[in-house]
Amino acid sequence: MYVKFWLLSVLAVLSMMPAGHMIVMLLREIEDTSIWITTHMVIGLLGVMLIHYGNRREETPASIFGFLGAHLIFIGFFELSFAFIADVLNIVPVMNPKNQEVLLAPSLQVVELSGLILLPLMLLLSINHQVRCNMMVWIRRRLKMNISFTTNNKQRPYANIAANETLFIIWTIYVISLLCLDPRVLGPTHWLSMSIYSLFMIWPLYLIYRIRRFTSNGYVFRYAIPVGVLLWSWVEMFSSMNIIHEYYLYPLMYPIANLATLLCAAILVTFTLLINTKYPRVKVRFRDN
Predict the structure, then answer these.
(1) pLDDT in tens, 160-178
(2) Nearest in space to 77 (alpha carbons), one of 121, 27, 34, 41
(3) pTM, to two decimals
(4) What is the C-alpha R_g of the chain?
(5) What's the CA gap between 51 and 72, in Å, rounded?
(6) Where are the domains of the chain?
(7) How far, rounded to the nearest angstrom, does the alpha carbon of residue 175 sit from its chain's CA centroid?
(8) Counting runs of H as helices and runs of E as strands, what totals does the chain give?
(9) How many CB atoms lie within 10 A of CB 218?
């Protein structure tokens, strides 16, 4: 049968989300502070090395390595910063007033505050004419700004591009989701929160409709990054409603399920990486027993 590359790309991106959560929760089991910090730093530096290596490859593998490197950077540097700052400032968890369970951990509140850093960075990206992100181009068109590009495609560092897109997309959706969840800001029942949730439900479906028309595998994979992350926001919303159990947050309690998730992510990413990039569709043959 034929498996389309855009579908493989979306599944690969989507599978990395629970795998990343699982790694973060495993790192929190480290009791020694120096080992905990060192491990995060090593993971983050490994992500930088992957991006550097990807920049020497062709467009499609470069985009995949950039995505993987950005994931490791987020786990290694971002998550370390959020948890470390929360610990230093002794931030108190936000409790759910209905059942007195922890609604927002201290590190998640730091993520919320990081939105003040994210906002000016996003504004700078939106006015940078060398940034070809579809959303940024759409903003510049609405503002009637010049959107001409001067960089040759052959000179573009695709691993860096995919890494930047991955970091900003995950970071942005992370912050917005937490602001909607925090009862001190909006709360899940606020009309604006409900509107954002609806947008998160509809937007990836529209992106899937568009991604099916592209033929360049490198562009398809980079386009699959927001699709996969937005689809993952469905899981987050359903889990907040207690519809889905977040087993990936308890790797020691559910080792088999988490190992299966990690193996699935590794297979999907590897398979996507090894595909012949000349074809938008990949023929997969199953051997009969």
Answers:
(1) 889 999 999 999 998 998 8
(2) 41
(3) 0.84
(4) 20
(5) 10
(6) 19-147+156-281
(7) 12
(8) 11, 4
(9) 21
